[in-house]
Structure formats: C-alpha cells, structure tokens
Fold this sequence. Notes:
Blueprint: H1 2-18, E1 19-24, H2 34-46, E2 51-55, E3 61-65, H3 68-77, E4 82-85, H4 86-97, E5 104-108, E6 114-117, H5 134-142, E7 147-149, H6 151-155, E8 164-167, H7 180-183, H8 187-202, H9 208-224, E9 228-232, H10 234-244, H11 253-256, H12 264-267, E10 307-310, H13 319-324, E11 331-333, E12 342-343, E13 352-357, E14 362-370, E15 373-378, H14 404-414
Parallel strand pairs: 6-7, 6-8, 8-9, 9-15
Antiparallel strand pairs: 1-3, 1-4, 2-3, 2-5, 10-11, 10-13, 12-14, 13-14, 14-15
Amino acid sequence: MKKLVQIAFFLLLAVQVQASYILLPMDHETQKDHLKAYGITYWVLSSNVEAWWLLNYRGGSFAFPYNRTFEKECLTRGVSYEVVADGQFNNILNEIADPEVNMEAIKLEKAPKIAVYTPDFNARGEKIQPWDDAVTLVLTYAEIPYETIYDREVLNDELTEYDWLHLHHEDFTGQYGRFYRTYHNQTWYRENQRKMEELAYDLGFTKVSQLKLAVVKRIKEYVVGGGFMFAMCSATDTYDIALAAEGVDICAEMYDGDPVDPNAQSKLDYSKTFAFEDFQLERNPLEYEYSDIDHSRGRRINPEQDYFTLFDFSAKWDPVPTMLTQNHTRTVKGFMGQTTAFRNQNIKSNILVLGENKPAKEARYLHSEYGQGFFSFYGGHDPEDYRHYVQDPETDLSLHPKSPGYRLILNNILFPAAKKKKRKT
C-alpha cells in the first residue's frame, strides 16, 4: 500500500513538472475574480514573460507558462486557474485556430506603462474633486500599477513615457464641470477653481479654458503618434467640445470672467474632433450639461431595464474590437454619469460602436484608430453604482469581482500589450 502511495505521488509530481501552462478561465461559472485575473496577467507580463489572450475561449481566458511563483500568486489573489499540460494547451490553440469557430489566440508581449490624468491633492492631502474614478478603483483592486499626471506633465511632454492614458472625469471646456448652480458655495468647488486658475497662470495662460485646450491638443498629438487614450463620463464629450471650440469663447462669465461668444455655436469646427459632430452646445450656463452629445436628458429608461449590448465581432478578422469587448456576458448593466451615453446622430460615421442600447438609440462604448494610435470612449461614471453622486462613497470592488462593466475598462488596459498583427485584407 505504501509503495502504491509513493508511485501515485511521483506520478502526480511528474504531471506537475510536465504541465507547461496556467490557464485563467474567464467564463462566469469558473472564474471567482475576473478583475484580479487581469492583474495576474499584467503581473506576469511585468515579469518579462509573454502570455496569451484567448479571445472568445471561455469568456476570453488568459494563459501563460507554468511557474510555481505564478501559481502561488493566483492562490494569494484568489484567482481561479487550471494547470494545463503542454499537449492539452496545443489542443486548445488548435481548437481556436479552426476557421469555423469565432476565436483567436493573441500573444501579449509587454506590460503597458499606464498614466492616469487626474488632479493633484491639496496641501492637506485631500482630493480636490470630491468624487472617485472607476479606472483608478479597478486598477487598484486588480493590483495593476499606474502613475498620475496632470496638466503640467502633459505640457512638459511627459506623455511620451506612457503606452496608455486614462482621462479622469475632467471638464476640458474650462467650466468646472458646470457645477456652479449647485456647488459654487462649497469649499471644494471654490478651492478647485482657485487652484486651477493658479495653475493656468503659472503655465502661461490667462484662462483655464485656454490651458485645457492646450492639454487636449497635446493629448491629441500623443494619440496621433501611437498612444492609446481611454476616457469615461465627461472626459469624453468635453474633450471633443474643447477641440471643436478652439479659438471660440464658450464659457460664461461665472467661469472665465467674461461673456460667452454669442456666435459660438456657428464657429465650432467638427473636423477637429475625435468622435462627435453636429452637436449643439447647451446655452444655459447653469445647466448641468455641456451639449446634446450626452443622451441623459429625456432618457426615460427604467433602471431595472437599463442594459446595453456588446457587439459580437469576428475574432480572426477584427481582433481589436474583439479584445475590447471580451466578457462573460454580452449584456451589461447600464450606469449613469454626467455623460451617460452618446446620441447616435452625433457619432461620426468612421467610429466603431462597441456597445449600444438599441431601444434608446444610444451608444455606450466607442472605439477608433486615430493616426497611429487609438482611443476608446465609455459613457457613465461607475459600472457598479447606477447613480453616483458627488461625495458618494467609492465602490467596494471586492463585492463585484465578476463585474462585466469593469471588465471593459480592463480590456482597454491590456490591449496595448497585444502583439500587433497585420490587417487581413
């Protein structure tokens, strides 16, 4: 009996030694923590080890060479995994390569260096703006490292040091989020305005709107040169509005000290924007809205029925949108923000819609190439907080480890790690 136990032990050890891959399944039933699985994959890439992204295979699974250290890290972070023998993994690759199945295996080569564009803290170490950010929340939860930058660093050309840039919920039009009517007497609002004006003057601008225009133009150069930009909520539409309004005063007196240009609307240049066109500016400076790009106004959708659908792309012919829409479900719960969704009629014809609420005639998730780079726009504030208000507590992602809405953010973060394939023609 003892001899049989010894033989079984050595057989098991032999299987472990021969096993050559760790598979992180990403289907709903198997994976306990989808979000941390991205963090594991990023960590493996940071260790100078290549990985595979198995598009549409069990929810968009990840795989990388077996290593006891990697296995221990999966256990430590609570990520479900399977140890796969070399022959078995080759069988998976052969299954994926079948031209009759909508799957593809993408090699991930290098962990992208990540920058988050976000305001500084004040002298007391407090956040200047009293709201959180979904991207920094999920990066922290998934244990993916990032660095923060803001206007000074952008104008000093420090963007070139990064592969991926996230735009925090910024107002690039210089109107302080259009919070004036509700919050202009709040300490945080006044302090934010004072600090932004000081920063603008220090960098050589007479108005915050001029500073923000310089920033969006420098970010545009970053994307044209090959960078990847990801924006959520108000950082999407205000980015394009700022570009279209170059040289035009669209800020009312309470925001920049002088009146808005009465002919501002007719002077907008939509050819300069990334994604949107033919939009109408909101003329009331006290209205909590910038333009009609956002589909929040008049949006009569029952919160219980507010979902958007991810498009199903061809993994072999369209690997980029397939990567960006990897999920364990094609239907994602909607969520609101200052910019919740994008009206279809304001989206340029060359922009790829990745997710939409068809009955509402709105897009929630957009992507496109721009120059040598890429950008993605994602509507809403927090994928797991349907109505997130100013000064609400931040979401505890340990309660939402399978969040499909947060997975879409992480898809964008890993996308720059993919080995570039020649376009099929």
